[in-house]
Amino acid sequence: MHALTPRQLPAYEQLLAALEQECYAFRESLGTRRVSNPESCLQARELVEQPAGFEVFRQVFSTEIAPQLSASNGGRYWGFVTGGANPVATYADWLVTLYNQNVSKGGDSIASQVERQAIKWITELFELPAAYEGVMTTGATAANVLGAMTARQEVGLKQGVDVAKAGCKALDYTVFAATPHASMVKALGLAGLGQESWVQIACESNSEAMDTTDLANKLNECHSQGKIVIASAATVTGTDFDDLVRVAQLCRKHQAWLHVDGAFGIFERLLTGSQGKTQGIELADSITLDCHKWLNVPYDCGVFLTRHPHSLFATCNADAPYLVNDETEQPFMSLGIENSRRFRALPVWATLLAYGKQGIKSQIQRNVDQANVLASWLNNSPAYELDKPCELNVVVFSASDKNKLDTHDLLAQLNEAGQVFMTPGVWQGKAVIRCAFSNWCTEMKDVELAIAELSRLAS
Ligand SMILES: Cc1ncc(COP(=O)(O)O)c(C=O)c1O
Question: Which range marks the domain in which residue 29 is found?
Fold first, then answer.
């Protein structure tokens, strides 16, 4: 296999044999390899003129690249909010590459129908009204961008401006938020609404959740023709949920667009139902959620849902004679950022089919139990401070004053040892460590290992 010519194509046997070996080596290495590789270094190489061939790539990958990759697909990587790739989704993702569909529009394959059904299943999973339609995105950031852009389009329509066509120069609007995720702030910038021009709503005491009295006051005082409220379900550090029922009531009263970022927090709905912490999310104009987090499908995969698909279409529609076809449904390339799109719906569809609502729910519950075990150990340890009671899957802690370590050094030493991986955060102005459980293959013995590591560092 030394040139890109069709005659070289039937090398699948070779590829499959190599992949099989790679899979076994990877699974075996997960138990022993470092969880993170902060000191990784790729050797400088010139672009080759003559084909080096598959075997050379394979050899370089397994000797130089694979050993320096993180074990983020294993059970002890607890940074950010990182899901693993579950086995069924992994297999489906291999198929995605094998078939390599471009899910831009229908008319030539069933792929768009699979995406449409996967989105419908997602709304059913989370007990959302059938009025929601949407699109698979590259992640929650892209979904938040669509949220900002669709809100902008609706706000424009009410002022007689088609923003997608005329731009937003003439737009009169105000955006309100309490603790938006950094990606939401980025999205406001990308949508031209401004990263720094939103109105800060106060938070409830010792919480990142929105103070709805402050929201009510600020909406009352606001004279803009267009209002957009960004709410959280949940925040990335405190896992705090805004009171979405109250926020939605206020939005209705002030004719404000409500976008809820539920990237991972929406999965809480599987544990406590539609009357739990996410109650009211079903009233939002648009919702962001991630599948590559708690649904444990491979990167990259998020979902944007909206009750206003026409505004989404108006925002994203791409017209060109060569793109026309007879499809009656709106093509996905006119509902999202990219024209050419990966068949990322298949691993989601496969996961929902293979594990069902109960299978997914029990995995979420396992992660929440794991977080609680670590949190309660930290709470009882004189060396550490649990900075916030654990309410979902994220544990927020620091070195206690009695411990000679500072929190920053503690995290560095913990990650340096390579047994577990956690990331920094800030809670109520204080530097903390965040430990987020969202991987299907984390086991209680992994939590015990983390506790052993933390005990060792404390002594
Ligand atoms: C609440 C929230 N929103 C958005 C994001 C961004 O997600 P992504 O990295 O998938 O774009 C995250 C990531 O952690 C998140 O927790």
Answer: 14-41+67-87+357-459
